[in-house]
Specification:
Elements lengths: L1 E4 H15 L5 H32 L23 H12 L2 E4 L16 H6 L12
Antiparallel strand pairs: 1-2
Helix pairs in contact: 1-2, 2-3
Length: 132
């Protein structure tokens, strides 16, 4: 088991998606698939909770639907910004336990990822043993 904040899952989702689309050898492909599956389940729950906050605090049209702008953004009603910010921060700071196996850094030798992507998924990589 590993304990992480929901914000870590959100921040790592695109790097994990990229990793999941890489051709990997059997055992590593299985481990990565299990990690992605576990995280996907949690992200679905996160998205549901985030959407409930948007429903509660966003600007809505005459049909009580959230107003979505051309760029895909929504706007929080001005009077709701402080409470929305507090609630979304609490959601993002929520710690959860994941039943995943950490990946070895050596497994990433043949995988092309940017340094930022590696930092985004650092929490699923075993730390190298410190010199005694």
């Amino acid at each position: 088991m590993i304990t992480v904040k929901l914000s870590q899952l959100v921040n790592s989702s695109s790097a994990l998606q990229k990793l999941g689309n890489q051709p990997l050898r059997g055992k590593l492909a299985y481990k990565v698939g299990k990690v992605i599956q576990e995280i996907s389940n949690e992200l679905s729950l996160y998205d549901k909770a985030r959407h409930e906050l948007l429903e509660k605090y966003c600007i809505k049209d005459d049909n009580n639907e959230i107003v979505v702008y051309e760029n895909g953004n929504v706007q929080i009603a001005k009077e709701n910004i402080p409470v929305y910010t507090e609630e979304i921060n609490k959601l993002n700071d929520t710690e959860i336990e994941l039943n995943i196996v950490l990946l070895d850094l050596d497994d990433f030798q043949d995988i092309e990822m940017t340094p930022k992507e590696m930092m985004d998924i650092e929490w699923i990589i075993k730390k190298e043993k410190e010199a005694e």
